[in-house]
Write a structure and sequence with these properties.
CATH class of chain A: Alpha Beta
Largest interface: A-B, 40 and 41 residues
Oligomer: homodimer
Strand order of the largest sheet of chain A: 6-7-5-4-8-9-10-11
CATH architecture of chain A: 3-Layer(aba) Sandwich
Chain lengths: 193, 193
């Protein structure tokens, strides 16, 4: 069992409706040493590929992206949701369905920050149905950039996102893959890796 | 002139409507070495105070918070905007007026992540009218926690947020304070510190 699986067992909470609550260390309160370990683990797993930019999506992907980017000395770009007054640039826009919010969200990256010459590592905190990852990959493709891989902290293996990405030939590395969980007992089964 | 002022002069863009666009290095694409330097500068400026938690607000505050938290080995908590299905805890909620989006936004932190015993350093990328900082301070007060200071990367000194916080006795440290800027010429005047 790796460090992240141990942390999930210790501090994650299984809730009804297929919810794994990890906001005490990952996506509301952030355990910074854990982020560092996640960054180091991504560095190890993606040691054989080269990338010059880490792409994620606001908000909870940013802390994870910061450490792998720091370790490889490359910038982070985070895709934004919705529109802002200060963002008048031409954008790459993709649609992601949010099962949490039950609607399609536009996500975008301003064109100057994704270039055809870029080699992109996508990272995010969660992969479930794969909508966010799919939309981020869409942005990379629109820019004509190269996707070198997708690094995920926690994959919910009982949802189809991971299987779809792997079937599409994407190099996907998930540090912890939850294959089942039980809100009654709190039991969490991780996939052997 | 410090490292952040130099970076703003090199890569910031002054736009009409009092907008300083820094999304090439701070709040869309993120220059990770710059975040590290901002973290180190906060560590230096707040060396005389003790804090056990860094509080910021999603999304662009997170990368800044990550490095000062890393250097002091404390967790980050980021306040969220709006509501999510997965966040059913009791919350501390405060209102912040967004001049960008021209509306009041609720921001919140789940109660377990702000405690009466916490000593909190608030950090954010920008301080202009001070609405976000004021709302974050409100959350700290609601929790009965202690505010030790507010660290800002870029303060827009011609807007009233900084003056209001200082008048209220808040220990405010802004790495770069822009006192005026001209969209015609791109000229940016920084306050002497």
């Amino acid at each position: 069992m790796n460090f992240l699986e141990q942390k999930i067992l210790a501090d994650g909470v299984v809730k009804p409706g297929n919810v794994l609550k990890v906001d005490s260390f990952l996506n509301h309160q952030i355990d910074i040493r854990l982020m560092q370990k996640i960054g180091e683990e991504f560095k190890r797993r993606f040691a054989d590929v080269q990338f010059n930019k880490v792409l994620t999506i606001e908000a909870s992907g940013i802390a994870i992206a910061a450490f792998i980017a720091y370790l490889n000395d490359v910038p982070v770009v985070f895709a934004k949701k919705g529109q802002t007054v200060n963002s008048t640039d031409d954008k790459y826009v993709a649609k992601a369905y949010s099962f949490t919010h039950k609607k399609f969200n536009d996500i975008f990256v301003s064109r100057p920050y994704l270039k055809p010459t870029d080699k992109i590592l996508i990272v995010d905190d969660f992969l479930a149905d794969g909508e966010a990852s799919k939309a981020l990959i869409d942005l990379v493709k629109q820019a004509g950039a190269e996707l070198v891989g997708v690094g995920i902290a926690i994959e919910k293996g009982m949802q189809p996102g991971g299987a779809k990405l792997r079937a599409a030939g994407v190099r996907l590395e998930s540090i912890a893959i939850v294959d089942s969980m039980d809100p009654e007992t709190g039991f969490i089964k991780f996939r052997e890796q």
